[in-house]
């Protein structure tokens, strides 16, 4: 491959192909954090989504071709079933000067690169908490993407949470854990709240306590650097209330159930990506 044209770090523009919720979350986060001004972000849409993006200053073009032509970094944020057509239609303007990014679930780099005609591509797997700036995003670089390209994308997605780099072969497991994981936690919050109601709490108080407790525990796990087993031990005094609850969870196979959920979702992701 010929020498890669560097993306101008101080002035680069980002274009979104697809103006859905994920594109909106990333764009809002990038603007809010000051990583990029809204004036350097473009997407294309003619309906209600146009107004949504314009409301926080993003330029909305008439066509996807215009988005690509004015952008240095092009992020594909469309449904899996339409990404191939979207890339093939834009292929004539997807030169190697442009860094291409996909946040499309289940579509492999080798296919993305083949459709685009080059391998300056980065695949990113964000999750839905990106919408509130607490996303977990994992990225894998195509052969033509430089380390500098990776740093630009890590900074962009860092605006909506935390980012990690990993080999693409791990992405099905990533899907099972961080991609599907928010749903498991929502179930956990709902169940904790139901337990509070069963123990006599008003519903609104139980739900508030359950949500904040999960948020607080997650924050302790990420910010203290302690192993979660140590944090659990710290709150579990001899013969106390917490160990009584933990005992019940262990009797019901709580850990095994969560492990099985991650493995089952990862297996399903593998099946879907092979279709």
Automatic annotation (TrEMBL):
Residues 13-106 form the Pyrroline-5-carboxylate reductase catalytic N-terminal domain. One of its GO terms (cellular component) is cytoplasm. Coiled coil: none annotated. Pathway: Amino-acid biosynthesis; L-proline biosynthesis; L-proline from L-glutamate 5-semialdehyde: step 1/1. It is found in: Cytoplasm. GO terms for molecular function: pyrroline-5-carboxylate reductase activity. Its main location: cytoplasm. GO terms for biological process: L-proline biosynthetic process. It is an enzyme of class 1 (oxidoreductase). It catalyses: L-proline + NADP(+) = (S)-1-pyrroline-5-carboxylate + NADPH + 2 H(+); L-proline + NAD(+) = (S)-1-pyrroline-5-carboxylate + NADH + 2 H(+). Residues 168-272 form the Pyrroline-5-carboxylate reductase dimerisation domain. Pfam families: F420_oxidored, P5CR_dimer. Keywords: Amino-acid biosynthesis, Cytoplasm, NADP, Oxidoreductase, Proline biosynthesis. NADP(+) binds at residues 17-22. Its EC number is 1.5.1.2. Belongs to the pyrroline-5-carboxylate reductase family. PANTHER family: PYRROLINE-5-CARBOXYLATE REDUCTASE, PYRROLINE-5-CARBOXYLATE REDUCTASE 3. HAMAP family: P5C_reductase. This is Pyrroline-5-carboxylate reductase. It comes from Artemisia annua.
């Amino acid at each position: 491959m010929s020498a890669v044209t560097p993306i101008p770090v101080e002035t680069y523009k980002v274009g979104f192909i697809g103006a859905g919720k994920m594109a909106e979350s990333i764009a809002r986060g990038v603007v809010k954090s000051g990583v990029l001004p809204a004036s350097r972000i473009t997407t294309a849409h003619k309906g209600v989504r146009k107004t949504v993006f314009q409301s926080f200053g993003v330029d909305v073009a008439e066509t996807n071709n215009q988005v690509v032509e004015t952008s240095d970094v092009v992020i594909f944020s469309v449904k899996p079933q339409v990404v191939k057509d979207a890339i093939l239609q834009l292929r004539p303007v997807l030169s190697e000067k442009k860094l291409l990014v996909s946040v499309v679930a289940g579509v492999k780099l080798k296919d993305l690169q083949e459709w685009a005609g080059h391998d300056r591509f980065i695949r990113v797997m964000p999750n839905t908490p990106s919408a509130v700036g607490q996303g977990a995003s994992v990225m894998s670089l195509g052969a033509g993407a430089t380390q500098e390209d990776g740093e630009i994308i890590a900074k962009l997605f860092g605006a909506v949470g935390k980012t990690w780099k990993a080999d693409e072969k791990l992405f099905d497991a990533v899907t099972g854990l961080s991609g599907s994981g928010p749903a498991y936690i929502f179930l956990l919050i709902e169940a904790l709240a139901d337990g509070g109601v069963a123990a006599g709490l008003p519903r609104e108080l139980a739900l508030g306590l359950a949500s904040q407790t999960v948020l607080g525990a997650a924050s302790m796990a990420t910010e203290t650097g302690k192993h979660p087993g140590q944090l659990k031990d710290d709150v579990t005094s001899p013969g106390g209330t917490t160990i009584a609850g933990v005992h019940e969870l262990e009797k019901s196979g709580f850990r095994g159930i969560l492990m099985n959920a991650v493995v089952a979702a990862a297996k399903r992701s593998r099946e879907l990506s092979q279709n």
